[in-house]
Amino acid sequence: LRLLQETVRWGAAKNRLPRVIQLAPEVEILSTMTEDEVSALLAKIDDSLVVEETCFRMMDTFFTEYNLGHFYYPELRCLKTACLVFEKLIKIKLPVLADHFEHHELNVGLFALGWFQTLFLYLPSMPTATVSHMWDIWLVERSFKIFFRVATAILFLSQPILLNHELEGMMGYLNTFPDATLLSPDILIACALQIKVTNKLLMELEESVAAG
């Protein structure tokens, strides 16, 4: 809000106001504005208007510059591909668990689809601090690999429990995480960062999926 207010002051001096203010129906644009008039204009700026504009710009950036839009293509093709890539990644990083999944005919997409589609907001037991940490890494790296590393870390930390359950028990655990201790950022993010997953590896796995 403070940044917008300063922008208004600068824009008023140049006789040019930011679009978010121009579109506000309660704001009257004057050709020339005195300091008092600028102050009066600032008083009319609604916080909700600022929040709405900020949220829109943020989501637009996620969908365009960070390629999040790919996950919402028709028929969720890219999202389903991500799940198949993750399935292959499990076979590389956690071969014993992968065999256990295959033995009990557990489709990785049954739980991973929600993880990737919502970038782990799908899990009600996932702490906000953990989600914020992995999103920070995503925004800095501009790569989805952190989400594959976190997903692999969740399975690695859960492996002793999963190996002692059949299909129904595994799905129940992966959808609820009765003991959410392993999802804390100090444990989960630290573990994820120890798992080596590169963009090159993910690209090779995606090519393998595409080849059938």
Provide tags for this entry:
single chain, 212 residues, mainly alpha, 12 helices, 67% helix, 0% strand, elongated, disordered N terminus
Task: Write a short abstract of this structure.
With 212 residues, the protein is mainly α. The chain is built from twelve helices and no strands.
Compile the SSE list and pairings.
Blueprint: H1 2-13, H2 19-22, H3 35-44, H4 47-64, H5 77-93, H6 95-103, H7 109-117, H8 128-141, H9 145-162, H10 167-176, H11 185-192, H12 199-211
Helix pairs in contact: 5-6, 5-7, 5-12, 8-9, 8-11, 9-11
Task: Explain this structure.
The chain is mainly α. The protein is built from twelve helices and no strands. Residues 1-12 and 17-27 have low confidence and may be disordered.
Rg calc? 23 Å
Calculate the mean pLDDT score and round it.
83
End-to-end Cα distance, whole Å, is 51 Å
Helix and strand string, N-terminal first? HHHHHHHHHHHH
Model regions low in confidence, pLDDT < 50 over at least 5 residues:
1-12, 17-27
Query: Mind describing the biggest β-sheet?
Result: none
